[in-house]
Please model this.
Amino acid sequence: LFSNFSTLVLGHNHPAVLAAIQRQLARGTSFFGPTDAQTRLAQLLQERILSLEQVRFTNSGTEATMNAVRAARAFTGRSMIAKCEGGYHGTHEALAVSVTPSLIEAGSPDRPANVPADPGLPQSVVDQVLVLPFNNPTAAERLIMEHRYELAAVIVEPALGTNGMVPATTEFLSTLRRVTASNGILLVFDEVVTFQSGFHGAQGRYGITPDMTTLGKVIGGGMPVGAFGGRKDVMAVYDPKAGGAYLSHAGTFNGHPLAMAAGAATLEHLTERTHAALEAKGELLRQRVRAACTVLEVPVQVTGIGPLFGIHFTDRPVHTYRDTLYVDREFRRRVFLGLLNEGYLLGPKLLGCISTPVEEGHILAFTDALTRVIARNIR
Ligand SMILES: Cc1ncc(COP(=O)(O)O)c(C=O)c1O
Model:
């Protein structure tokens, strides 16, 4: 139920993915230039992510968001980037602010503090980030308007992934869309995790079109991958003939053929029907966990979107990153370890992801195990 943090939507060692990797292995592992597999994956992505007029491949989600930031800066000529409190976009510095701040550090809920996520992060980097409160459209709009002439982009996960599988509200995303569009600021959806929430990604679910999208995880079928792209005029910063600001996207292994082949084989199996089944199983799991906790009289909030889910032991509704902090961490750790002893690996924050081999029976067995683990720990 973890699928290497949502990278293996078809489960481990899917025969079609292994066969695609083996076919590509026989043809060669890396080349100086694009390959058929890369073109195929790009086409499959464009059929799904309709805003992806052009796409470029990287070796990780980190590089995808890093390059999206660079492209947005080159395109707009502005340097500030807005991100949400609790948003995780990888390990490069430009977005390493207010990723997991404590309640003490985080500051006012309407005007979150810029909390460096890493020791040694230069203050000049921190100062280039505007932190927005997730799911607070009024405050986010006010902050964006205050910095509207400095902002190159707003980047947002349509559902906070690493920090709780907390979906954005439609109102929040549509406010970001409106205020960015009217101020020449690019809106970037980081769909590294949420891509698998629907055939057309989270942007399809919400019916909101970003200017750029970043991708990773699932699209490499278990191989290291990332991708970023979107509006053709923005991606033209990579075209030396376009005549505007020119940005290089060098990378020895960009579009690595093994990842491209594994990713294409994965997407070929991820049909609209498969997505509908994953959605139903995600909903079943969320309902069963809620029902189990009701019987045990343990307060819980089960969040998620499509096959992605988060279990939060709190009676407080979870709509923001801060809401995820009001949990008994020791109890959560015991449940995590208890589930491990029962044979279930979730993320340590009790996050999970349903893959296609997971059947209804597996979900029922999981919730039975969860019931046993909780019962042992509340005695
Ligand atoms: C939303 C999001 N963006 C970017 C990344 C970074 O991806 P990678 O670990 O491939 O560098 C992650 C990783 O968990 C993520 O969850």
Remarks:
- Residues 5, 60-62, 65, 88-90, 157, 161-162, 190, 192-193, 216, 226 surround pyridoxal-5'-phosphate (CB under 6 Å).
- The first strand starts at residue 54 and ends at 58.
- The two ends are 26 Å apart (CA to CA).
- The longest helix spans residues 272-296.
